């Protein structure tokens, strides 16, 4: 499988928010990028966001597959669409070219069998938005994926400055999204029950545990909170009450009423703040945070 510095041309299928960010990442690392998206005006929108050289907009999927050393697919989160895309890419791409999907929750076994030639090189490489800044990528193989494909994906992503993790068994939503979903479930429940506001939930995480989690993960953070006894001390003394909290966690239904309450809460929290401006400041802060983590050996 082509990997690491043998990847010279990056293929990007789908040029929405994730696809554009993949394009930026490739160009930042000096790769040629060939991209394709069937939507009307997609090329114009992409070039307006990425006015750099080294970018070619293809006429179709087959051109991307034939030209790329690595393909990153970021199309709609629909299984029927994924199967069509990967069947076409598999037809066009050389056998040693990895075909990866950015799917946030679909399992690769559900679409790699649409590839008649080389399903063994198909896997999920799920990034976090925006991929050109956030280091995490979840690598998930399917039933037909060969270990060599997994290793090639991990190697290439590290070469591109990412922090990939290998998800060893397929589960819906992979890992990070499942962790997020667990938090969101309780957050929605607390808002639904009138216990706290949407804005205060955001404050509770952004100005509380989220600060520590952005530096060290939940296990490492919990270990440090245990003093000399570490995680063992924490689980011995705080484990039993934590189990009681688990039993008390909510199971909200995403009703129209709850959706309205959540949306209204976010609107109130933003209070006219420009989302575009907030995204720009968030990305600036992400860059600074990543620099600090690197300088301190935490990244």
UniProtKB/TrEMBL annotation:
<dbReference type="InterPro" id="IPR008927">
    <property type="entry name" value="6-PGluconate_DH-like_C_sf"/>
</dbReference>
<dbReference type="GO" id="GO:0070403">
    <property type="term" value="F:NAD+ binding"/>
</dbReference>
<comment type="pathway">
    <text>Lipid metabolism; butanoate metabolism.</text>
</comment>
<feature type="domain" description="3-hydroxyacyl-CoA dehydrogenase NAD binding">
    <location>
        <begin position="55"/>
        <end position="169"/>
    </location>
</feature>
<dbReference type="InterPro" id="IPR013328">
    <property type="entry name" value="6PGD_dom2"/>
</dbReference>
<dbReference type="InterPro" id="IPR036291">
    <property type="entry name" value="NAD(P)-bd_dom_sf"/>
</dbReference>
<feature type="domain" description="3-hydroxyacyl-CoA dehydrogenase C-terminal">
    <location>
        <begin position="173"/>
        <end position="242"/>
    </location>
</feature>
<dbReference type="InterPro" id="IPR029752">
    <property type="entry name" value="D-isomer_DH_CS1"/>
</dbReference>
<dbReference type="Pfam" id="PF02737">
    <property type="entry name" value="3HCDH_N"/>
</dbReference>
<dbReference type="GO" id="GO:0016616">
    <property type="term" value="F:oxidoreductase activity, acting on the CH-OH group of donors, NAD or NADP as acceptor"/>
</dbReference>
<dbReference type="GO" id="GO:0006631">
    <property type="term" value="P:fatty acid metabolic process"/>
</dbReference>
<dbReference type="InterPro" id="IPR006176">
    <property type="entry name" value="3-OHacyl-CoA_DH_NAD-bd"/>
</dbReference>
<protein>
    <submittedName>
        <fullName>3-hydroxyacyl-CoA dehydrogenase</fullName>
    </submittedName>
</protein>
<dbReference type="Pfam" id="PF00725">
    <property type="entry name" value="3HCDH"/>
</dbReference>
<comment type="similarity">
    <text>Belongs to the 3-hydroxyacyl-CoA dehydrogenase family.</text>
</comment>
<dbReference type="InterPro" id="IPR006108">
    <property type="entry name" value="3HC_DH_C"/>
</dbReference>
<keyword id="KW-0560">Oxidoreductase</keyword>
